[in-house]
Amino acid sequence: MLQDIRDNAQGTVAKVIVGLIVLTFALFGVDSILGGFGGEPEVAVVNGTDIKESEFLRAVDIKKRQILNQMGQNADPALIDDQLLKRSVLEGMIDQEILLQDAVEQGIYISDQSIDGLITGINQFHVDGKFDNDMFLASIRNFGMTTKSFKDSIKKEVLISQPRNAIVSSSFLLNDEFSRIVEIDRQTRSYSLAKFEQSTYLDAVSVTETEIQQYYEDNTDKFRTLESVDVEYIELDKNSLLNSVSVDEETLKSLYEDEVADFVSAEERNASHILIEINDDVTEEQAKTKIDEINALLSSGGDFEGLAKEYSDDMGSAKQGGSLGFAAKGAYLQEFEEALFALAEGDVSAPVQTEYGFHLIKLIEIQTQPTPGFDEMKYSLEADAKIEKAEALYVELAQKLADVSYASADLLEPSEELGLKIFAQENVSASTQSELFSNQKIQAALFSQDVLKDGNNSELIEISAEKSVVVRVAKHHPAAQKDLDIVRDEINSFLLAQKASEKARGLGEALIAELKQANTTQVSSVTWEDFTDIKRNDASQEAVLLKTVFSMPKPQGADDKPVAGLVVDGDYFLIQLDAINVSSVSDIKDEERKAIVRVIGGGLGNAEYQLYQGSLKTSANIEKI
Question: For the purposes of burial, counting CB atoms within 10 Å of the CB of 358, is it exposed (0-12), middle (13-18) or buried (19 or more)?
Fold first, then answer.
């Protein structure tokens, strides 16, 4: 199980740990995780404390890996601005160091037992719902971290979070503040709306040829074609190769015999262990001495389960008396596995050393499983064999495609030699949206000197683990000015719409002047639509319209209602505010009131903490080297 977990930690778990670590980086930097070495150059000094260059470079590397992981299959390191990335990471490390120093100065403390509890509660280190020490160790060591360095990183993160939590949780609202905020938030407004639609006035305006010509000359950049290419390409898809491979019955039976041979010898063993870890605080000699002492206690009649609970450094299994559960061969590290499978039921091994430390292993129980029949395994054996053959064929064809296309003037020869179809796509540009041609690697190849200018086939481009392509440019279409005849109708339509919108706006503004001059509400010649008790977040209304409505002053009387106008998508809206309606705070129930106070208080607390953090940084002595 240890080795399987170690292997698996390269994938999903690794990404989870990267996310966990990078979250700390984003907020505070990585000084809490990485230890310095005397004499190393520093990149910054914060209140006399050095931030070492090695720490900084490692932080930058991990942050870059996280960004590339977020990019997915289109990941391209060339898209990352290294200088911007370095500045961002350094600022985060400086902020983290300042906050850590502040926490230490305040005498904030957290026990090692509390840190252990936090770590064992992290779901990513759990197997079957329980903390698994092997999963934990394999995961953190993939990042070059020891148990001590990881615990230190968590400890420092908790230390930093405590002042923030104290500030946020101590924020409060006065009753008057609460009432005012609720009244503003729950306020509704009633208003009347008159709409002057752009489309209504299209027939009332016209555009001259001179205006079209002038607009074209003044806006030449708007009427240029994007640089584009006509593309030919060959696609090699691993999944499509599955249909071209087959596995005969004789091969399947041979595979079955191999499986059965392994299966018959396979068994699962239920084991417990006591681990004394070798780490930064415990040397190999000290760990060996300790495990020998525990072994002596066992020899004198000591209870294995009780000793595991008392002494084992495996945080997950120790609470269960060292129990690791059932596992088959291949699950553990070699030294551990050899010792376990040499035991009889009930036996305890001599001390066994692995990369984690020293173990005492007890075999609790052995269980075997019945051998499955050929028909039961045939389908899975055939599927696995076809996948293996397709993968081998894919690797072979990919290499051949790369070699042949490199030496060919076009794609005809590789197409004929490998039996792959040549596909074509016209007018591919930087704005092309497709699964293939929006890929950054494809875009970079198509517009490169080698492919675009020199006319060569591209190198083999790996799009994903299952697909690769070779592309070539069949025709180049440079960016060019569009002829006026081509865009005349487009310009004419634009100018007509612009003039119609201006006419609508002119009529609307004239009406506003008329309303103000007549000192009256509304005008009978215009159709008004009434809206009552509309909330500021009403999804049925245009957001920009609501913003205007809720920024208008309160009506002073029945005959003195404020009016405003605005353009939305070419149409002109005339708004008359009729009333502002305020909800009664007394109608709010206690539970709802508490929830509102908690949310608003948390927001105010966060703002106060940002000010606090800013003041710490302002007063800090920071030297960037």
Answer: buried
